[in-house]
Amino acid sequence: MDKRDGLIERRKYIRLSVPIGISYTRPGDDRVHRSVSKDISPEGVRFETGLASMRKSDPIILTLEIPGSRNPVHASGKVAWKKRLSLEDNSPFDLGVEFEEIEEDNKSTFLKFLCDVIYNMAKEKADGPKKR
Predict the structure, then answer these.
(1) pLDDT 10s digits, 18-39
(2) CB neighbours of residue 7 within 10 Å
(3) How many Å apart are CA 98 and CA 102, to the nearest integer?
(4) How far apart are CA 15 and CA 107, in angstroms?
(5) Which residues on adjacent β-strands are paired with residue 19?
(6) Which own/partner contact pairs does 121-130 have at CB distance under 8 Å and 24+ positions apart?
(7) Coil/strand/helix, residue 63
(8) Rounded to whole angstroms, what are the CA distances from 1 to 6, 8, 44, 60?
């Protein structure tokens, strides 16, 4: 664990700020909600929701629309945390979801996507600023 500014970093993986489309629902609920990821890692995803009824440890079913992939990634997880985005009563929430299962057929698609994002970030950093 890293200690930075007196805080202990508990994350195992970096968070990638990559906007991907997300459809999500609660088990037993027919309503499908949509959002866009704010960040994602091999262990979870953060996105905005208007569902005030979501609570820590609630199960959630996710469909992740991976750019460049023909098929979406299907996963299930649980709410790890929820935080209101402003002090207004009707403001949306940031929702942190911990993946519990990613469908076997989708794991390689998901992990390849994350690896490609990291590779491209490293390449851009190594290449330096683009000349005009």
Answers:
(1) 899 999 999 888 899 999 999 9
(2) 9
(3) 11
(4) 18
(5) none
(6) 121/16
(7) strand
(8) 12, 6, 19, 29
